[in-house]
Amino acid sequence: MKKRALKDIKILLVEDEENLARLLKDAIGDNFYSFSVAIDGVEGLEVFKKIKPDIVITDIMMPRLSGLDMAKEIKQISPKTPIIILSAFSEKEKLFSAIDIGITKYFLKPFDTDELLEYIKSIIPRLSKKSIKLSDGFVFNKGTCSLYKNERYVSLSKSEIRFLSLLLEEKNRVVGDMQIKESLWGEEVSDERVRTFIRRFRAKTSKKLVKNIKGVGYQLSFNES
User: Which residue, 70, 97, 127, sits at the end of a domain?
Assistant: First the structure.
């Protein structure tokens, strides 16, 4: 169950030491839904706002914007996002500032990547957000963007997650083909491609989950109880 939960998590690593960033990504990156890397605090903030990661791992001393200054800004945007600090021993005194910022954990370099991975596993339960009950026994977890059918995990592609998220955002409205094209592909595609995509999505999940409003578009079906 923990291994499956890891596959739902998005990690952002902010580290200016290229070798360390590569080592970390190679060592633990495949465990997660995505593992993005930024080279300093400025880029880290940009990537954070773009991908909305579940967990941020950051160095302290970096050019342009330090890890602590970046963490302050992230906490203003998303107070509950866990931030893990990677610190050299010589920077240990700076960790007192991290307490005030709300840093979740710190690891002194050099550290064991397995210990880092185990710690991430341990905080996964607190990442859960309110689950949304859908029709036909489906539940969608907005925190991890994961779908379950009668408590069994349903593997979705990134496009399928975007489609489901779009329907959730527009839950009181019918979503037309044009909006689906723009959200999923960002370009003009054929109507047949949209129909094929949705047909496969409904075959993987359930015809009851996504309602086809003939001639108008599609709408998500919720548990009425």
Answer: 127
